[in-house]
Amino acid sequence: MERDSAWNPGIYGGSVEFERFYVSSALHDDEIVVDLGNRSYSVYVGNGLAADVHSVIPDDVGKIAVVTQRNIGIRPTLTIPHKIFNIEDGEQTKSLGTIAELCSNFAAMGMNRRDLVLAIGGGIVSDTAGFAAASFHRGIRYGIIATTLLAQVDAAIGGKTGVNIPEGKNLVGAFWQPSFVLCDLTALKSLPPRELLCGQGEMAKYAFLGAEGLDKMPLSAQVSACVRIKAKYVEADEREGDRRALLNYGHTLAHALEAVGFEDPRLDLKHGEAVAIGLIYAALLAKRLGRIGQDRVDYHYRVVESYGLPTSLPVPIEPDRLIDSMFKDKKSFGTLTFVLDSRSGVEVVRDVDVALVKEVLSELSQ
Ligand SMILES: NC(=O)c1ccc[n+]([C@@H]2O[C@H](COP(=O)([O-])OP(=O)(O)OC[C@H]3O[C@@H](n4cnc5c(N)ncnc54)[C@H](O)[C@@H]3O)[C@@H](O)[C@H]2O)c1
Fold first, then answer.
1. Distance, CA 274 to ligand 1 centroid (Å)?
2. For the chain, what is the largest distance between any 2 Cα atoms, rounded to a whole number of angstroms?
3. Which residue of 131, 180, 192, 325 has the fewest C-beta atoms within 10 A of its own C-beta?
4. Test site for ligand 1: of 74, 142, 271, most ligand atoms within 8 A of the Cβ
5. Torsion-angle region of 43 (φ positive above 0: left; ψ -120 to 50: alpha; else: beta)
6. What is the CATH class of 2-191?
7. Cα distance between residue 167 and residue 328, in whole Å
8. Which DSSP helix (H) or strand (E) runs through 41?
């Protein structure tokens, strides 16, 4: 990777350009700039990028806190003083307790606003490390080496950081953009097959947000296409006022399933699997509301099934438990709100009738 000295470093100034680095074409297949003024950053997609992370670390960084997990075998050589913090696996670790622990460790290292948090991992690591970076000293820089497909096509892009609380998923967090994202496709080689499938759950979502024919592209192009779409939504609506909420297609039910799954071990669903079921549910609901026809519902089934992802609930779940959880969704505002398909694309739909939501949930159990 090479630095471009024409770009003026600095993320705190109001009008300065973002610090930008170039990866030589031999090292990356694509660079997508998430264009957010002085909070802009590059997302690189390619093989073996992690080994070259030092090239994207800003010159003035004095210390690095690496946040990762033990089972992720990616430990790039860092010449800057650093410490490695392994967080536990799973949604339970995405908690305020972990944030407190990480921030204490950052303080013990003497980290300041010039330093960097480096997240190496999937969405759990990037959401948690990102929120710790957003909170410590009211915000220090962080970069991400995204090591799961789900993180590469979604979680690592867009600066949504946060943790779960017992009342719901991702209920506490901050918008805090990373300084760089490396989508290292080599990392995916060690990813368990079920985790790869989960990434495809988020990829399936993009099929309804403008990415046609993903399944016919090489993996690198698929990741790039998803990043490019996500970047456009983030640029149009960084803080999820309206348009960015469309990226939550399939997520109202998915988050409810995950929240119920916290308490009910019978519901063993990972995020991407929950999204896949959520996409089917959203299609069934949209059809009942007269927004789409059966052909479009069939298309949802085709896309989700083409990845081998689930299309129905794995065990019967009391609809009221899911509905209670849906009311806690951040899009809810006291009524049931969904992102739903229509003949002109997906839209946020508020005030969906609770009885109908319940009825369609029972269709999903069959
Ligand atoms: N911030 C956002 O915009 C956003 C978007 C979508 C999802 N998310 C969040 O992302 C999380 C899910 O992320 P995920 O699916 O990446 O799960 P994850 O982070 O739990 O990773 C899945 C598993 O794979 C392991 N792993 C990661 N990289 C590996 C590698 N290269 N080789 C071997 N093992 C590896 C992890 O240790 C973990 O066990 C959820 O909490 C979800 O809410 C956030």
1. 14
2. 60
3. 192
4. 271
5. beta
6. alpha beta
7. 8
8. strand 41-46
Integer-rounded Cα radius of gyration of the chain: 20
Tell me how far the alpha carbon of residue 355 lies from the centroid of ligand 1, in angstroms.
Answer: 34
Task: Record the tokens describing residue 317, joined without a space.
Answer: 């779940």
Report whether residue 69 contacts ligand 1, using a CB cutoff of 6 Å.
yes
SS3 71: coil
92-134 pLDDT, tens digit each = 999 999 999 999 999 999 999 999 999 999 999 999 999 999 9
| Cα distance between residue 288 and residue 110, in whole Å | 57
Please check the confidence at residue 261 and state whether its pLDDT lies above 80. Answer: yes
Fold entry, domain 243-364: Dehydroquinate synthase-like, alpha domain (1.20.1090)
Q: Using a 6 Å cutoff on CB, does residue 104 contact ligand 1?
A: no
Taking the CA of residue 202 as reference, the ligand 1 atom at the shortest distance is 6
Ligand 1 pocket, mutate which of 67, 93, 99, 150 (most atoms under 8 A from CB): 150
Strand, coil or helix: 162: strand
pLDDT of residue 215: 82
| Range with lowest mean pLDDT among 17-31, 240-254, 343-357 | 17-31
Q: For ligand 1, is residue 130 a contact (CB within 6 Å)?
A: no
Write down the domain spans for the chain. Answer: 2-191, 243-364
198 lines ligand 1 (CB under 6 A): yes
**Helix or strand run (H / E) with residue 173:** strand 168-175
Ligand 1 lined by 258 (C-beta under 6 Å): no
The residues that bridge with 121 in the sheet, in sequence order, are 146
pLDDT band at 22 (very low <50, low <70, confident <90, very high): low
Residue nearest to atom 7 of ligand 1 (CA): 155
- Fold match between domain 2-191 and domain 243-364: no
Instruction: Report whether residue 125 contacts ligand 1, using a CB cutoff of 6 Å.
Output: yes
C-beta separation of 41 from 34 below 8 A: yes
Distance between CA atoms of residues 93 and 164, nearest Å: 9
CA of 183 to the centre of ligand 1 (A): 13
